[in-house]
Amino acid sequence: MYIFEEVAAQAITHLKKQDKTGAYDKLDTLHAFSAQLTQDLQAISHDLHFSVTVMPPRMITDRAEVDQEAMRRNYLNRARRSNYGFRKLEILPGNVGYLDLRQFADASIGGPTAIAAMNYLAGCESIIIDLRSNGGGSPSMIGVISSYFFDKPTHLNDFYTRSSDSTQEFWTHAEVQGPRLTDTPLYILTGARTFSAAEEFSYNFRNLKRATLVGETTGGGAHPVSRMQYPQHGVSMSLPSGRAINPITGTNWEGVGVKPHIEVPAREALDRAYAEALDQILTDTEDEVQKRQLQWVLEGLQAKEVRLSPGQQSAFSGTFGPRRIWAEKGQMFYQRGSGATLRLTHMGNDHFDLEGLDSFRIRFERSADGKVTTLVGRYDEGREEANPRNE
Known about the structure:
There is one protein chain. The termini are far apart. This protein has helices at residues 5-20, 30-45, 68-81, 107-120, 139-147, 197-207, 269-284, 288-302, 310-316, and strands at residues 51-54, 86-92, 96-101, 126-130, 155-161, 166-171, 186-190, 212-215, 225-230, 235-240, 242-245, 262-263, 318-320, 323-328, 331-336, 342-348, 351-354, 360-366, 372-379, 384-388. It is built from nine helices and 20 strands. The chain is α+β, with helices and mostly antiparallel strands. The strands form four sheets. The protein has an eight-stranded antiparallel sheet with strand order 13-14-15-16-17-18-19-20, covered by helices on one side. The protein has a six-stranded mixed sheet with strand order 2-3-4-7-8-12, sandwiched between helices. Strands 1-10-9 form a three-stranded antiparallel sheet. A hairpin with a 4-residue loop joins strand 9 (225-230) and strand 10. The chain has three domains: 5-59, no CATH class; 82-221 and 257-284, 2-enoyl-CoA Hydratase, Chain A, domain 1; 310-388.
């Protein structure tokens, strides 16, 4: 069943040689044995989908067949508990949508959640889909999500299956529930843990020139798998039985991964994509109010926290009109009147951000001799309020 017959033959020869030379004799647990089999299979195939794993205890029996209905119930419960992969959904300041997607659940069960998510993002001026921790899943979900970004049926990918010598085509849907996002800029975040179906999604959009990929090159697993169950032995096998064929490149990402347009460490990918999105919106808009707000968001995004010494903290501490600044246990705090106490973050050049407030910041002005004399409250629409230090 393995997609490449000659590789399968080489793998069989290698396993038999390992067994004959006693490579498995001292492996005294099923986990250790499975791990060694996986290592040996991948040493020949270089295929990260080719693996042997220990089955859950409840699935291990003395029979050669598994309870398929029990397996399906288990899958459905796990998918539901993980919200079908939709980990986080929010609108970032500047009207940039963000979706943290951890798996591509089958559309037959996760479709309604996907539709709700895409409709939630419909009013955004740019969208970021985070696949840095997405290990894959079903092409059916890829089809549902992808359909919102194209105005007509678009050929996404093909899968060839060796056992049937057949090829199945995958296209976007002719209809979607809710508005399409065909003109909305899209950024896809990738990393080394982006794998399988998440790589297909990234590869499709890269080759269709419909998204900007930001982050690291992906894991490099392009072969769809058949799941072989051996409950009487307590193990299952992930057996790659097909290969992806992109309609544009004629090939896939197996072993090489998907390379992003903008290469940055995965941990920095969100900030970089967010800044790119804001820059593009700022370039496109002619609304002066929106421009000021976008510049405000970019200022906060690009600022880096600067640590202050006790002496520097003391220089800013004091009462400025109704506003009070003080230091406590190495942190600086702000309070207006009897309002909430908010932690301050120094952004450099006597500017401070306030934890929990997106639309208000403060900066300090100094006298000619360097003493802090005035606190200026700044609002995202451009308004400022100056409060001299109280004597």
